[in-house]
Design brief:
The protein has one helix and no strands. By secondary structure, it is an all-alpha fold. Keywords: Membrane, Transmembrane, Transmembrane helix.
Length: 42
Amino acid sequence: MIVIIVISSPLIVILMTVIIIIRSWSIHTNEYGKSSSSKSVI
């Protein structure tokens, strides 16, 4: 059980970092898309 926890804990950390990166990237792209669309309208 201890070995499973030790092996799974780094995987959980990697998954959390990947989720955070994907969320921040999606938010950044959404803001960029809004700014680019507003510029195109202007």
